[in-house]
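## retry 2 of 3
previous attempt timed out at serialization; input unchanged, resubmitting
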Amino acid sequence: MGRHNAGQDLTEALKLAPHGSEKVAALPEAGALVAAAARKAPLHERVFFFMAYMNLTMVFLIVLILAMWRWA
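## retry succeeded, writing output
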């Protein structure tokens, strides 16, 4: 007990277990995995990403211009 971390693939550890896979199959189901539908990002999120990438581009351009000005 207590030697396996949560979220890890325990396929190999199950082969080394003193019991079979029927013990794992007998555990209660915690929930169902539902496929998420593709959603379009909200407008405020798209505007945020646009402004963030625009800001990053402007910073790189300014650094490039300063570097060329300094060493040209």
